[in-house]
Amino acid sequence: MTKQSRLITDKQLMFSVFCFLQASPLFQSLLFSYTAQESWLAIIPAAVGGLLGLLPIIYLYNKNRGRELSGILRNILGQKAGTVFAYIYLLYFFIRVCATVSRFSGFLSTNMLPQTPIIVITGILMISCLMSASRGGENLCGMAFLFAAMLLFYVIISVPLLTESLEINNLLPVFTLNKGTYTKAVVTAIAEPFANLMIFLELFDENESREELTQGYYKKSKLGKALVLGYMLSAGLIIFAVFRDNAVFGEFSKNVTAISFQAARLISVGEVLSRLELIYAILFVTTVFFRVSLSLYCLSKLLANTAERGGSTRFVLPFGMLVWCVSLVLFSSNSEMKEWSYVSMPFYVWIFELLIPLGLVLICAVKGLMGRNCNATEHLSKLKFNKDGKVLYYGTLIVSGVLLTVIFFCFFVFNYQIPGPLAPAKWLAEKVVQLFVR
């Protein structure tokens, strides 16, 4: 196999982003619980906000070509601070993949396999993901196109099959809720599913643009375009699904769990073509499989690079076993899962997926290192702003101010509960104790 064939192409990365974001269909239950039949009003600005949150990730890649996440953090923040932040991100990604597995098992045990123990459901998933993740990122991303094609085909054919259940009037009335409710819905929708792509920085050093660097020449990369296209395609499909589900259930959307799955149950063509919710469930399992597999690989690679132990897949098995065990005790009940999803998850996702990347961009801009090394150890007095540096500096300050204003109004003015700073550590410690007590 040649070196070029082992690299992740831009097209593979585009479809990987698409499938990764599609593995969060249960977010609709969170969104609809706030805005019911008006959810389509909230999902559109959330998609735009998520797209803006993707821009700092693209910038960090362009200014740190050939580096993965830990290398980017060390290059910008210095060796010690960068290593600390790399380990913090490792814990953050680990908790998110555990939550994904836990919600997946809850969905299947509630809607598809009520008699099957959760440990069996998660066990089958984790064994499959371990086998896939151990083969490397290029093999995982190579499967994304097939998964994306199946998803697109299902969503497109579901609309004509649901014609009898679709009512445009179910999208009305609108603007009946207060501003705080809309703000909470948008913030939650940005956090899940749109702000999920920071982990992809761990794959960028395997992109085909790396071949250009190793051969001694620098060419403008199309990776940013691939990320944006993959995001827009996935966001468009999510918006389309929200419109469809709102048109089917209307004001009752607020009381329906796993709403896309329930919409698929309504499809019946002459009592011959029915039970299409099974197809939806299979596609959901497929996307979760892809997301968990890719997350395990990125976790293993991040730890290997941060600890400088080498071997991108050497920690896949330990992380898989940890994710399996922690996901079993992560949430003691559905109510606890919903509380975490409503309160803790959006707050920390905004910090790790939006504010910290913006802070990293701001450091590069302040030092005026446009197109050069962003190392934080160079003294500020020796640096000068160029025109692009000033634009980026003030632009980043404005965007950061807007994000902080949104967080202030959402979490303080609109009484959106903020978890305490030690809540994640305390919560994780309790789960570890429960794991051994059980």
Question: How are the SSEs placed, and which strands pair?
Answer:
Layout: H1 10-22, H2 27-35, H3 39-62, H4 69-77, H5 79-111, H6 118-133, H7 137-142, H8 144-161, H9 179-194, H10 209-214, H11 223-249, H12 259-265, E1 268-269, E2 273-274, H13 277-307, H14 316-329, H15 334-366, H16 387-413, H17 423-437
Antiparallel strand pairs: 1-2
Low-pLDDT windows of residues: 1-5, 213-218, 375-386, 411-415
Main beta sheet: 2 strands, antiparallel
Strand order in space, largest sheet: 1-2
Number of domains: 1
Classify the secondary structure makeup into a structural class.
mainly alpha
Walk me through this protein's architecture.
- The protein has a two-stranded antiparallel sheet.
- The protein has one domain (13-320): Hydantoin permease.
- It is built from 17 helices and two strands.
- It is mostly helical and 438 residues long.
- It has helices spanning 10-22, 27-35, 39-62, 69-77, 79-111, 118-133, 137-142, 144-161, 179-194, 209-214, 223-249, 259-265, 277-307, 316-329, 334-366, 387-413, 423-437, and strands spanning 268-269, 273-274.
- It is globular, with a radius of gyration of 22 Å.
- The longest helix has 33 residues, at 79-111.
